Amino acid sequence: MKYFAFAVIFLFFIGLPLLFLSWYRRSLSRRHYAALAAAALDKGQGYYATPYLRRIVDRLLKLRNFAALEKLLKGETAPAAKFLAARGYSFEAAVLEAFSRPSVAAARFQARVKSNPADNEALAELAKLSHLLGKTSRSRLAAEKIGAKATAYASGIRLYFAMLGAAADGDLQRAVDYGVRANRRFAKSKAWYEEARSLVFLGTVYRVSSLFDAAYIMYKTAENIGRRLKSPVLTTEALANLGMLMMTENRFSEAADFLAEAAKTARKHKLDGYLAELGNQRALLKLLTASPAAAERYAQTALERHTRLKNRGGQAFSYELLSHAAKEKADYPAMVSRASQAEAAYKGSDNISAYLESMYLRAEGLFLQAKNRLGGKKYLESAETVLRRILMIAKKKSGCFHAANAYTLLGLIFLRRKEYARARALFNQSLALEQKDERITGIAADFANIGLTEKLCGNREQARKNLQAALEYAAVDPESDFYKQLQQRLAELD
Question: Smallest Cα–Cα separation from 433: which of 456, 453, 413, 410?
Fold first, then answer.
């Protein structure tokens, strides 16, 4: 009897606590360990694998490799990857490898897909890693092959890349549809990191679509997820996008606050890539608030950081911002030089729009130089060559926006040469494109240029008609300098 009593006492005071601790350890894994591992591995490279990290954590616990788990929670993947690979868990090992050696991991997933084209999980990871490595076409192709019977997570990845593709094609409505559906899949699979990234991109689609309240909700939700997960990367990214949103709404003081908070977080956690991007964003803010000297300082610092990180896209944008700063300072040779550097950095990238914008900036700099320097004819000829190159590329790979701008500047070049018929024709070509895209400011500018051309040709009534049309479109901002200039031009015709 006393032995029974002793057994009961042992079970109550020692056995039950041990059982509880064992149970707690396993339940804790499902609740916390995966999130802790994700936070430890979250270094700003843009790769996440939330459901698979939960699976990896469970494997390590079941196989009682607590040492590898502890290393994983400190951001070290190699011990766990080696251990899992040796026991036949090659997929999980490749996922861990993706955090430190994405190109190697991509090759492993590519091999899995080759041996089994219907491996939806491998296709999802291949899509993510290809995107991370800048192989956009391969990324989209892998995502499109994810089948209808895929898990909620893999389906979310397919929809996420469908959203990116639709946005790149200019179909913003379709991008929103894909983004909303992707978010639902990520929420269902408790893929919080992926959900936050999807929310940020969806917010950007809303911002570009001028749906600012919706964009704010997306970015704020992503920020809340980032803070809940203790992810400085997600938090920084959301804050930076909130800053960009405030800039879009001309709420410059709030934009400065968001960007400063983002920079503080990035600096604290040594997120050099984000610090570089934030430098570019703060330079843009200074340009918008008419502070070109400060913009130049931020852009130059950002350029140095991007150069160290070998981020060609970031370098290109820094050069572009430096070109704009030089324009504001009326330093047109520097404007042309920096635009040329931006153009060279963008060349060969998928960012055709930015490439064309940097070309236009160079042409504009050459045009402005022609006003202030001897040999203006040479600068005009060089500008014309660049603009015709833009038109050739834009017809094949871009929308109306870039072509319209090129036609406008070409028209101004021929106006300078007093070839009024050709100038008028070019302004009308620009106008047709602006009307197609319903760009109000562009339409107003084209009518104003046509009006000026008619005035120079002595056609006062035609000049008045076109200037009046320009004034009506410019009335969206009656306080602008442009609106006041149009009023003055019309008064001069009376």
Answer: 410
Are the C-beta atoms of 193 and 42 separated by less than 8 Å?
A: yes
- The torsion region of residue 74 among left (phi > 0), alpha (psi -120 to 50) and beta comes to alpha
Phi, psi dihedral angles at 166 (to 5 degrees): -65, -40
Take residue 92 and report the two structure tokens written for it: 């999980």
Model-level pTM? 0.82
Cα–Cα dist 195/132, whole Å: 17
Dihedrals φ, ψ of 236, to 5°? Answer: -60, -45
279-327 pLDDT, tens per residue? 999 999 999 999 999 999 999 999 999 999 999 999 999 999 999 999 9
373-406 core/surface letters (b: 16 or more CB in 10 A; e: else): eeeeeebbebbbebbeebbebbeeebebbbbbbb
d(CA 197, CA 178): 14
Q: Where does the pLDDT of residue 13 fall: very low under 50, low under 70, confident under 90, or very high at 90 and above? A: very low
Cα–Cα dist 161/127, whole Å: 8
Cα–Cα distance measured from residue 439 to residue 402, given in angstroms and rounded to the nearest whole number: 12
